[in-house]
Amino acid sequence: MSSFDDRQNVFENKFALDEALLFKAEARCCKLFGLWLAEKMGLPDDRSMSFASDVISANLEEPGFDDVKRYVMPRIEEKGLNITEEEVDTKLAEYFVIAQEQIKTEAE
Questions:
Q1: How confident is the model at residue 34 (pLDDT cuts 50, 70, 90)?
Q2: 3-state secondary structure 55-72
Q3: Higher pLDDT, 34 or 22
Q4: φ, ψ for residue 65 (rounded to 5)?
Q5: Mean pLDDT calculated for residue range 27-44
Q6: How many Cα atoms within 13 Å fall on the side-chain side of residue 32?
Q7: Which of 17, 20, 88, 105 has a Cα at 20 to 30 A from 10?
């Protein structure tokens, strides 16, 4: 029975690690996306980091990036930018891959 318990512990630990890495990757993705969008919005450097932090915070509402889109789309429209929701989805997917690679590299 001990080997079963050991195996269960290994799976639980791996799950916890995977979830932690996913959380970090989503946060990094939101930061990268927020900085990209801040540049598109013409925000000054000091405001760009603050905006990226706001995007990260917006992502804490629910799993996935729908909460991020709900946060940024009104701001995009406010600034009169020609950025569609599909482009937001594409950029988030692109930055999520980059974030995962960065997190993986840092863990090695």
A1: very high
A2: HHHHCCCCCCCHHHHHHH
A3: 34
A4: -115, 10
A5: 97
A6: 20
A7: 105
Q: Where are the beta strands (DSSP E) in the chain?
A: none
At position 33, the amino acid (one-letter code) is F
Cβ distance 27 to 55 under 8 Å?
Answer: no
* DSSP letter for each residue of the chain: -HHHHHHHHHHHHHHHHHHHHHHHHHHHHHHHHHHHHHHHHT--HHHHHHHHHHHHHHTTSSSSSHHHHHHHHHHHHHHT----HHHHHHHHHHHHHHHHHHHHHHH-
| pTM score of the predicted model | 0.84
Residue 33 near residue 55, CB atoms below 8 Å:
yes
Report the alpha-carbon distance of residue 58 to residue 72 in Å, rounded: 9
Q: Are 83 and 40 in contact (CB under 8 A)?
A: yes
